[in-house]
Design goal:
alpha/beta, five-stranded mixed sheet, signal, disordered N terminus, oxidoreductase, globular, Glutathione peroxidase, Glutaredoxin
Length: 157
């Protein structure tokens, strides 16, 4: 991240990465799979815009809800690139292997976040500072993150 404009690193944790939706106004980040939605491009834009501030998007595919991500881990990126959303799409943020977000094999991250189909902003201290309902648009999340960054700068001054 070399050229950061401030020393704080925050992460937007995305449960599952993409969501099958029928309309553009119904975008989601959580509970995904290989998706028809265009918000994957919005996530790339958000990562690009805020990366110099130490912002990182973390995507966690999951197949626990309606077979959203039924393939093997090695099939996820080609599926995004060639199928949904397709057209050569490649996420510019960290995409992890599939994991369980609840149940017997629940990943420790989601035990900590008390996950429930929401998006989380994790602050520089590793604690969740904001969370959003599944149907909140990326543009609204962006505004909340920018407001949070401004608060961090004001506290440091």
């Amino acid at each position: 991240m070399g050229n950061q404009k401030n020393p704080w690193i925050s992460a937007l944790v995305l449960v599952g990465l993409l969501q099958k939706v029928s309309g553009l106004s119904n975008t989601q980040v959580c509970n995904p799979g290989l998706s028809e939605t265009i918000h994957s491009y919005e996530l790339n834009a958000l990562q690009e815009e805020l990366r110099d501030y130490g912002f990182i998007i973390l995507g966690f595919p999951c197949n626990q809800f309606g077979m959203q991500e039924p393939g093997k881990n090695y099939e996820i990126l080609p599926g995004l690139k060639y199928i949904r959303p397709g057209k050569g799409y490649v996420p510019n943020f960290q995409l992890f292997e599939k994991l369980d977000v609840n149940g017997v094999n629940e990943h420790a991250l989601f035990k900590f976040l008390k996950w429930n189909f929401e998006k989380f902003l994790v602050g520089p201290d590793g604690r969740p500072v904001m969370r959003w309902f599944p149907r909140v648009n990326i543009s609204e999340i962006r505004e909340d993150i920018l407001k949070y960054f401004r608060q961090l700068v004001q506290r440091a001054e």
